[in-house]
Amino acid sequence: MPQLSLSWLGLGPVAASPWLLLLLVGASWLLARIRAWTYTFYDNLRHLQCFPQPPKQNWFWGHLGLVTSTEQGMRVVTQLVANYPQGFVNWMGPVMPLVTLCHPDMVRTVLSASAAIAPKDMILSRFLKPWLGDGLLLSGGDKWSRHRRMLTPAFHFNILKSYVRIFNDSVNIMHAKWKRLTSEGSAHLDMFEHISLMTLDSLQKCVFSFDSNCQEKPSEYISAVLELSALVTKQHQQIILHMDFLYHLTSDGRRFRRICRLVHDFTDAIIQERCRTLPDQGLDDLLKAKAKVKTLDCIDVLLLAKDEDGKELSDEDIQAEADTFMFGGHDTTASGLSWVLYNLARHPEHQERCRQEVRELLREREPEEIEWDDLAQLPFLTMCIKESLRLHPPTMGISRCCTQDIVLPDGRVIPKGVICIISIFGTHHNPSVCPDPEVYDPFCFDPENIKER
Ligand code: HEM
């Protein structure tokens, strides 16, 4: 039997069993990996020293828990941005750095890099995966590029134009409800709750052509979407539950899975029903006829979508995209609209000017409804909406993973492999970009002022 000399390890000659050889190969591989990892870690550390760092909690936890998705978390971001207006590094534990960017010059560099160099990272959104699957928001690589190309027609102006009528109908239902509630003596209404139902109602009609009358009577699907959103936010706020296996042991985790199934069953039933009722007429012809009269809903667009090789989306893909549109579209718009109303209520002078602008536009019109072309004829209201989205952005930040070193305009380098947070809230509240960032001033978006930005 061949003898293996392990004298360099202080061991005598040993029979070279295949297991021992395997162990040696494994150990060498592990050592090589640790060596490469350590080298990369220290190299990254060298590059990251150019970025300022807020004081750490301690060496182990780093900055974990410093920026949370709460009001206090936003105050912390405001302070960090005032101290470090270009960006800063924070550590998620002892070995994971995050580069946070909060200045447009820095953000531009990362966002204009290709999807191969700075693909989306799931650190902020991975909790949504069991719900949204591989829809556009969470997918990456070739799948994302292919679907993105296939779904671009869903956001074509001609399709969006036909939705304005749906938005008007949903808003009229909400207004009628408010009038009824106030006439019955309700002095306080929770705007966000009502507006969320209105945006969900609009989306359900735009995505599924489905009218559940959800603004007036409870709908199981709508309650499920609202509850899933609340559960995701809750999980996000509890760092210990970021570990999926722990989360799924909790009652919230089990409930999350149950409601996910309910939402998926709803979407699946609609897709199956749409496919079942179509075959006799010929799917393509019917969808094309619908496209001509511009009544396509998102499911139609998804059923029609074909890639360059004529390949269609699978039922699972269609489900993921439809669930993504419902999620991506309802909370963002409800939050954006609620804050616009809040800011106008706090500034009656701006509110009055908006009201005059709309009244002027609708003068002598019957019925008094906003149309697509009107949207460009409301410059002051547009400024008020943009300023509200600046002060209170519905999405706080997005994340990217740098697959190559990214050189920022000032020469600093975000090293390959490091995750980068683009702080939308931080950028909007950056005093070096906006002199008085906490003040609601629609003139920030006066066409004269934006020329310089
Ligand atoms: C005020 C309203 C909205 C805000 C603030 C908003 C915000 C965002 C942001 C910040 C992203 C980028 C995520 C990233 O790159 O990492 C995004 C992506 C996306 N949003 Fe929205 N959104 C809004 C409305 C909507 C609506 C109405 C829909 C659909 C009905 C929608 C569907 C999507 C989808 C599908 C993506 C993924 C796009 C892709 O990665 O290719 N969003 N949204």
Automatic annotation (TrEMBL):
The record's section on SUPFAM superfamilies has: Cytochrome P450 (SSF48264)
Q: Where is the signal peptide?
A: 1-16
Task: Give a Pfam family name.
Answer: p450
Coiled-coil parts of chain:
none
Keywords of the record, alphabetical order, are:
Heme, Iron, Metal-binding, Monooxygenase, Oxidoreductase, Signal
Q: Which coenzymes or cofactors are required?
A: heme
Which domain of life does the protein's organism represent?
A: Eukaryota
Q: Which InterPro entries match?
A: Cyt_P450 (IPR001128), Cyt_P450_E_grp-II (IPR002402), Cyt_P450_sf (IPR036396), Cytochrome_P450_Monoox (IPR050196)
Q: Which family does it belong to?
A: Belongs to the cytochrome P450 family.
| Name by which UniProt lists this protein | Cytochrome P450 4F11-like
Species the sequence originates in: Equus przewalskii (Przewalski's horse)
